[in-house]
């Protein structure tokens, strides 16, 4: 029987969240965060997700999946274990 997980606020592709979560050490609040730092942030989330979620599990994502165009998620969502059911964030 698959496990059911709940999560939210992954913020894939979000420069501010990458900085706030420590992927741009030393960056001031007004500094731009580079693509490499955002990619490291996204990769860390994918790795943590896949450590906890098995391929057959169900994941309810309760908002704020990403701050990128949906087409940018094509390289992320297929790499996440489980079947994701996403709800809208606060848009």
Provide an overview of this structure.
There is one protein chain. The protein is α/β, with parallel strands linked by helices and 91 residues long. It has helices spanning 15-20, 35-52; strands at 4-7, 58-61, 83-86. It has one domain (4-86). The chain has a three-stranded parallel beta sheet, with no helix packed on it. The chain is elongated, with a radius of gyration of 14 Å.
Which helices and strands occur, and which strands form pairs?
Layout: E1 4-7, H1 15-20, H2 35-52, E2 58-61, E3 83-86
Parallel strand pairs: 1-2, 2-3
What are its keywords?
alpha/beta; 13% strand; three-stranded parallel β-sheet; 2 helices; 91 residues; 3 strands
Distance between the termini: 34 Å
Rg, rounded, reads 14 Å
Strand content: 5-15%
Specify the biggest β-sheet: 3 strands, parallel
Number of structural units classed as domains: 1
Strands side by side in the biggest sheet: 1-2-3
Helix content: 25-40%
How many runs of DSSP E, i.e. beta strands? 3
What is the general shape? elongated
Mean pLDDT: 92
Please give the count of helices.
Answer: 2
Order of helical and strand elements: EHHEE
Task: Give the structure's gist in a few sentences.
By secondary structure, this protein is an alpha/beta fold.
